[in-house]
Amino acid sequence: MPTVIERPFTLLVADRPILSFMASTFNEANELTREEWLRADLLKYRSNDEPLWDGAAKLTVRPSDAEEKAALEQGLKETSADDGIALIYLVELDNIERARGSSRAAPHPLIGQKSTPLSREIYFGACRARRSVLSAIQ
Question: Could you read off the pLDDT tens digit of each residue along the chain, which spans 138 residues?
């Protein structure tokens, strides 16, 4: 079986970088924009009391730039995606437990860390999805 090499990609909402992740090809990365579970999360999750996505803005992907790649690498060190895909958010997320529908107001569970090469704070968090979702399109 050939070795699969993954590269870093960034998902943008209306040209705003939202999260980074690893994928084998651009087509595989782009398929993530069509996943209903991700679209639902982007509608629910908020940053600075604004939804990450309004349901209408264009979702696109592109290869990650140097800052996004550094954030992704740091986030991957701080989480384990097991057999899933790690989505490393590049924006500060508001209370994620409330967004997931929990009735209790919990502190933000994402790992926060100031990254010196970046001009903004980046909060790392991982969402898991079965790897088969992306590998099925190859």
Answer: 677 799 999 999 999 999 999 999 999 999 999 999 999 999 999 999 999 999 999 999 999 999 999 999 998 888 765 657 889 999 999 876 555 554 333 333 333 333 322 322 333 333 333 333 333 434
- 116 located within any domain: yes
Contact 23, 9 (CB under 8 A): yes
Is 1 inside any structural domain?
A: no
Q: Please say whether the beta carbons of 89 and 123 come within 8 A.
A: yes
* Structural domain harbouring 33: 7-135
Q: Is 59 a domain residue? A: yes
Q: Is 22 domain-assigned?
A: yes
DSSP 8-state class, residue 32: G
What CA–CA distance (Å, rounded) separates 84 from 7? 15
Give me the number of domains the chain comprises.
1
Q: How far apart are the first and last CA of the chain?
A: 14
- Judge contact between 105 and 95, C-beta under 8 A: yes
Q: What is the pTM of this model?
A: 0.70
